[in-house]
Amino acid sequence: MRSPQKRRSPRKAGNGAQAGGLSAWRVYHKSSRADQWRDRLPDPANYYSARLPKLSRPNGAGWAQARCPFHEDRHASLSVNLVHGGWRCFAGCGAGDLLSFHERLTGMSFRDAVAELTGGAA
Question: Which InterPro entries match (predicted)?
Fold first, then answer.
């Protein structure tokens, strides 16, 4: 008696080939003009220091503290990274990157915030 053979799933066959001959990794990581706007974002240190009064000096990892502009704050509860641009409010306002901070601070949509920060169309 012959034992049944295992069937290979189409996703495991080959090395991720899809219709058209490109792998999923190459399709996802293909650089295009739309991805280059991130290179034109402002320097996080300049951006945050212009918008947050009383920004502390950064620690060794680049994190500095300030009062959160999104809620009434008596003490510094906002941490911003002056190297990569990330931010986090420890009072529960949220976290994100420089772009999400700008969206929330100004009330702009994603497209408008990108256009304003990069100095051009998104």
Answer: DNA_primase_Znf_CHC2 (IPR036977), Znf_CHC2 (IPR002694)
* Residue found under tokens 């295009």: 32
| pLDDT tens sequence across 2-17 | 666 666 555 544 454 4
Q: Where residue 49 sits, what CATH number does that domain have?
A: 3.90.580.10
Q: Which of 22-26, 34-38, 85-89 is the least confident region?
A: 22-26
Residues 6+ apart with CB under 8 A from 62: 81, 82, 83, 84
Q: d(Cα 94, Cα 92) in Å, to the nearest integer?
A: 6
**Tokens at 56, concatenated:** 């502390």
- Is 74 in contact with 63 (CB distance < 8 Å)? no
The answer to whether position 113 is within a domain reads: yes
Under 8 Å between Cβ of 76 and 66: yes
